[in-house]
């Protein structure tokens, strides 16, 4: 590997990557290596080669170099562990972004700056080229559409924050002046979040429109021409994963940024996987021990009948949760990886009180909600002490089998399992019918499951026709206790009712064992704790 000096940011280094005077840049540390490779692969697959990755530690720099990804050293030697939102290190990362913009713009190149937790779905460069007058184009957190086609969002109607996870800068005097002032502002006060600082500066003056038709607006010092990328196609985690706004409007999405989500980095990764846009190695699709999946078969009345209320939402989610609980137990007994089912919700989840869905948004009810709306994915994937929580249970996203990266040989090695009533004709553990279907008695014990599946260890995928009453409980009391301790922690909260503080309601994995269980927020902060 060449000397670190050769990776220093310079005009010459950037010049090597530039096409049509533009370079697409992201940066991060080794903890985000898989996000960065996903980001790179999406761009190169669509023929965009004019990209650069800033490496915040030498571990990432070396890894990218050996993979042939153009990178430069950001010299900050940050820790390679994940950086929590809002932590001091997170704020330092924020400083890195503005320092980077302020460094690259004087080279005279256009810069499309991205966070690593976003993915390009369509080449954005032709879109950006439609607005040659713009000094800065930025994405936003807007959740209500202001346009129904692919024009820029109407600046007069966008009330949400401008989001600096995706923004484009031209090397104009106005843009350079903004970058310089933004950098000075952040370096002078380490309490300011970089995005808030950016919003404060560009809103210093907002208006009038630059002209009648471009959608650009004079901002910041009155000279900067700003455009707001439409949130319907430069998507947030809400407009993409919850609303599917681009589909409702029959548009093609250019990008998705994993905002508006829960469960930290694991939640982001899982959402991108659910959307089939995250790149995983082949072994991810063929885990040791094989996969377990099931048909959730939700009764129509739970899904569609009646008003969309807190009660009907929880009735629907609880029905699914109970099946998932059984599936987790079966996966644990058989030592298989559970493919989570698509999860249906009637209500959206946010950080504040709301009427069920955001007024003016295109969220349709019910909708397939991201797993992190209900499940604490970060907890599910965390190492937990064996003696207290039993063995870990691996999971995969519901769209796994639809992913083009899923190998055919995994899909071909498949066993269907039909639950039957014990004692009914043909309901024996040891018989598979001609069609390759295994009959399994309902309320099977741990032993029954182990016996029934002992000769199918090499089958890659086992699919249950239902998980309703498939399994009773673990034979060993300690094992049952460990399992309960584990899965109780797997579910989070729904948020939030508008009329009560605290306004969130805890999901309860064992709701069905509590007579008269009702979905209600804690009475007071004293009662505000999970149900375990």
Automatic annotation (TrEMBL):
InterPro entries given in the database record: Glycosyltransferase_77, Nucl-diP-sugar_transferase
Nucleotide-diphospho-sugar transferase domain segment(s): 48-272
GO molecular function ontology, one term from the record: arabinosyltransferase activity
GO CC, alphabetical: Golgi apparatus
Gene Ontology terms describing biological process: cell wall pectin biosynthetic process
Protein name: Nucleotide-diphospho-sugar transferase domain-containing protein
């Amino acid at each position: 590997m060449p000397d670190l000096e050769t990776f220093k940011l310079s005009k010459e280094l950037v010049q090597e990557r530039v096409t049509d005077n533009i370079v697409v840049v992201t940066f991060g540390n080794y903890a985000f290596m898989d996000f960065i490779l996903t980001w790179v692969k999406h761009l190169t697959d669509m023929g965009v080669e004019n990209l650069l990755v800033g490496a915040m530690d030498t571990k990432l720099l070396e890894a990218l170099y050996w993979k042939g990804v153009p990178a430069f050293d950001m010299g900050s030697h940050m820790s390679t562990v994940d950086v929590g939102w809002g932590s001091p290190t997170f704020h330092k990362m924020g400083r890195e972004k503005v320092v980077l913009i302020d460094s690259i713009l004087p080279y005279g190149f256009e810069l499309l700056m991205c966070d690593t937790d976003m993915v390009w779905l369509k080449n954005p460069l032709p879109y950006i080229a439609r607005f040659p007058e713009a000094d800065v184009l930025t994405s936003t957190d807007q959740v209500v559409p202001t346009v129904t086609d692919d024009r820029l969002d109407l600046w007069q109607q966008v009330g949400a924050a401008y989001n600096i996870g995706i923004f484009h800068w031209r090397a104009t005097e106005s843009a350079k002046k903004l970058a310089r002032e933004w950098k000075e502002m952040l370096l002078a006060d380490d309490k300011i979040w970089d995005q808030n600082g950016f919003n404060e500066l560009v809103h210093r003056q907002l208006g009038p429109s630059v002209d009648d038709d471009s959608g650009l607006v004079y901002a910041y010092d009155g000279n900067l021409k700003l455009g707001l990328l439409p949130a319907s196609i430069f998507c947030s985690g809400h407009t993409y994963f919850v609303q599917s706004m681009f589909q409702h409007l029959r548009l093609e999405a250019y990008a998705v940024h994993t905002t508006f989500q829960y469960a930290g980095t694991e939640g982001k990764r899982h959402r991108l996987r659910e959307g089939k846009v995250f790149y995983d190695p082949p072994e991810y699709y063929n885990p040791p021990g094989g996969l377990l999946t099931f048909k959730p078969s939700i009764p129509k009345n739970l899904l569609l009948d009646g008003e969309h209320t807190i009660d009907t939402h929880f009735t629907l989610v609880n029905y699914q949760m109970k099946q998932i609980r059984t599936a987790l137990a079966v996966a644990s007994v058989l030592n298989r990886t559970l493919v989570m089912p698509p999860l249906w919700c009637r209500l959206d989840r946010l950080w504040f009180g709301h009427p069920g869905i955001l007024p003016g948004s295109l969220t349709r009810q019910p909708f397939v909600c991201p797993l992190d709306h209900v499940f604490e994915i970060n907890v599910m994937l965390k190492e937990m002490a064996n003696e207290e929580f039993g063995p870990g249970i691996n999971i995969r996203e519901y769209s796994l089998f639809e992913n083009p990266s899923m190998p055919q040989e995994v899909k071909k090695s498949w066993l269907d399992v039909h639950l039957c009533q014990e004692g009914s004709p043909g309901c024996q553990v040891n018989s598979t019918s001609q069609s390759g279907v295994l009959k399994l008695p309902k309320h099977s014990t741990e032993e029954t499951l182990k016996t029934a599946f002992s000769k199918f260890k090499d089958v890659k995928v086992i699919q249950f026709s239902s998980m309703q009453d498939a399994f009773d409980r673990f034979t060993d009391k300690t094992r049952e206790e460990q399992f309960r301790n584990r899965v109780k922690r797997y579910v989070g909260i729904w948020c939030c009712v508008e009329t009560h503080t605290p306004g969130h309601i805890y999901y309860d994995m064992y709701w069905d064992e509590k007579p008269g269980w009702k979905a209600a927020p804690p009475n007071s902060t004293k009662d505000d704790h999970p149900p375990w």
